[in-house]
Amino acid sequence: MPQDRLYILVAKILSKDATPEEIAHFQLLISENQEWKEQFRNLEELWGTEPKDAGISDSAEDAYLQHIIKLKLVSPDFAELANGNVSTESENFQLYPTKIPWYQRAQSIAAVLILLLVSVFSYQFYNHKKTNDSISLSQFNVIKVSLGSKTKVQLPDGSKVWVNSDSRLSYPETFKGLTREIYLEGEAYFDVVKDPKHPFIVHTSGIDIRVLGTAFNVKAYKAEPTIEATLVHGLIEVTKTEHPNESKILLRPHEKLIFDKFAKSESVVKQFSASSIKQTANYQLPNPAIIISPLAKNIADSAIKETSWIYNRLTFEDERFEDLVIKIERWFNVHVTITNEKIRSYRSTGAFENETIDEALKELQYLVPFNYQINGREVTINKN
User: Fold this and answer.
1) HSE of 362 in the Cβ direction (CA atoms, 13 Å)?
2) What is the sign of the dihedral through the CA atoms of 192, 29, 106 and 41?
3) Disulfide check for 314: which of 181, 184, 265, 352 has CB 3.0–4.6 Å away?
4) Are residues 269 and 193 located together in one domain of the fold?
5) pLDDT category of residue 270 using cuts at 50, 70 and 90
């Protein structure tokens, strides 16, 4: 996010004008930045300090302007800098400017907030560090899962989430408002508690998924060109993050949606049979932004390729070897180097369950001709 937009977001939060979605997004942005947390705490305390002058309005906006006066006492050039003009004259500075709507003042407030941050840091307005790592807004829990690991989380509403390797899940300590919103980077399987009055929304980097109560899998790794949503039970509604007002896509049980982050086309292709899937795989159709394809309906949930990982099975079906290697790296927490280009294009089908990396590679050798060396967590694959 550009810094000017971030400062506008801070200004809206401090003035109580931010929406729940903006607050949640802000929490996610600062969840891993201790410096930003500390600076926000200082700004929040500065904002809430009671003015000494009697008879002045207690509104958030007026209190904000009073603090500009206070900072002027610390830095004489502060008010002039805020107006983009360095001057020694300040008799025209108005404590109560003409009242205009928030949306017309947002950029100005953001500009002054930048100077607030600089002033707080440079002059050490608060020169002591606080050990408490919380802020007054609703806390977000951030679950990080390292390579080679998985974890299960129960959300405040009772919904259960299985989080896969190399993934991050962010959710509030309590769900407030009309929706239950979380953020995902990576892969997770959701079993959502039904609550029609409070829809459950999963935000990813490219699509948002809205549900009432259902079971589904989302795969949204930042480094991968596609995002996948696989519905097992229930009904979900998918929208593009950057185009929320476009037509919504409904996904039904045993359907899979693939969103191409870099597709130039805006088309949506729905496949109805194995032949149409093969046709798309052979690039006989235009490159669509979204593909919806059916899953087999007569198999157990544990046997579905997209969700088998929650049953400790790494399943792959007609998968290119270079794509399978990415899954192997996450599953076994290793780094794999392929030295032969021809090996990358080989396709294979199978599953791993309790194998070690050495056992898994030996099994793959029955499907793909290659040799390998293991040195710690480094694996090198070369031509047979």
Assistant:
1) 5
2) positive
3) 352
4) yes
5) confident
Measured between alpha carbons, how far is residue 161 from residues 98, 189, 200, 205, 214 in Å? 51, 6, 13, 19, 12
Report the predicted TM-score, pTM, of the whole model to 2 decimal places: 0.63
According to the model, what pLDDT value does residue 174 have? 92
Residue type, 33: N
Estimate the share of the chain in helix, then strand, then coil, as percent rounded to the nearest 5.
Answer: 30, 30, 40
Taking only Cα atoms into account, the Rg of the chain, rounded to an integer number of angstroms, comes to 26
Same domain, 148 and 295: yes
Query: d(Cα 210, Cα 201) in Å, to the nearest integer?
Result: 4
Give the number of residues written for the chain: 384
pLDDT value at 274 more than 70: no
Contacts (Cβ under 8 Å, ≥6 apart) of 104: none
Residue 362 region by backbone torsions, left for phi larger than 0, else alpha for psi between -120 and 50, else beta: alpha
Range of the domain at 362: 313-383
In the 8-state DSSP scheme, what is residue 381?
A: E
Asked which of 123, 149, 178 is the last residue of a domain, the reply is: 123
Of residues 367 and 35, the one with the higher pLDDT is 367
- Number of domain units in the chain: 3
Other Cβ atoms within 10 Å of 368 Cβ, number: 15
Instruction: Answer yes or no: is pLDDT of 280 > 50.
Output: no
